[in-house]
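User: Some background: our group keeps a shared notebook of sequences we're curious about, and every so often someone picks one and asks for a predicted structure to add to the entry. Today it's my turn. The entry only has the sequence so far, pasted here. Could you supply the structure so I can complete it?
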Amino acid sequence: MARERSYRYTAVAIALHWAMAILLVFMIWLGWNMDDHESRFQLHKSIGITLLILTVARIVWRWLNPPPPLPDMPKHESLASHLVHMGFYALMLGLPLGGWVLVSSSKFHVPTVLYGTVSWPHLPFMDPFRTELGHTIIETLHSKGAWVLLALLALHVAGAVKHEVTGDEGVLRRMLPGIFGQSEGSFGQSRGFLAAFGGAFVLFGAIAAIPLLSSANRGVVPVTPTETLGDWAVNHDHSEIRFSGIHDGDTFTGTFENWSAEITFDPEQLDEAKATISLSSANASTGKKLYDDSLIAAEWFDVGAHPLISVLVDGIEKTEAGYTADAHITLKALEVTVPFAFDLNIDGDSAEMTGTSELSRAALNLGQVSDPDADWVTDSVTVAVSLSATRN
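Assistant: Of course. Here's the predicted structure to add to the notebook entry:
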């Protein structure tokens, strides 16, 4: 026996309607007020993907739980209501997808990290949109689509209010949560909750897993600490290679978590002293996922093509303040030489060393697509090294 249809939407449909309406309006405001605000830009992308997944759930829910019929009204009003709803669904799918295409084809290659936690992949096969014309077309459609959405929203609200104030059978109360009559949809009466939301969750999880699979297969070269080469064995539990700089006015810092060092050093034979360090470029960690995802990208460390960073320290000389040396850094097939100043304390067979050096992003071709003028990230990056070692 068919269920008797009530005049109200299901509880789930009501919740989705109002949650998505609030997110859409906030999303449009955010899109107009996120220039030079990276955090807002990431939040805009996060909400966009959330709306895309919720729209998928909402479409499945609507299919499995048809809405109550419209009250008696003129055919032109019924047609207008139908077209407005179809327009809403088209834009709820089209705007997030357009934004996804937009960031995927951008020359700036800024990663998308949903709510600072989940890495979200860029779409493949974006070459046709990476031209200036293609990117402009997508950007225009995306921005103008927001205005169309606002126009549809105005029509939708006007129609609902009109039927409430003219004595017609009301439609607004059908979608208002609360006490306006019996809802068709408690979870026990409605159908397809698992299909709608479980399916949307599976879709989200499948897409979010792509960066994890890419990370597992990008050819990371492990760097195994050695205890036998050179004069000194590094105690990695008490040693650190740290980098720091300024991004958008805030200091950031990170460490390389996978590296090895071969050290030959005798204070009486400095002409033969040297250190060779190998670092895994994929294991730089800042504690902030957006930064970590940026560092592995092609315009920064490009870990897929260049999994190792090599450093040779030689030309060591004693000074009144400590020691100076030349650090030859090879990164992405580029080599730069920078001064490295350090202090060293040798006590029997134990040694403690601390040193610093300043690197230029531009010289190492780091972040030169998205930030060539150092508007966001300072060109100068400080590398600080602290080593604890014992004599072999």
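Suggested note for the entry: The first strand starts at residue 112 and ends at 114. Helices lie at 11-32, 38-64, 75-104, 132-165, 172-175, 193-216, 289-295.
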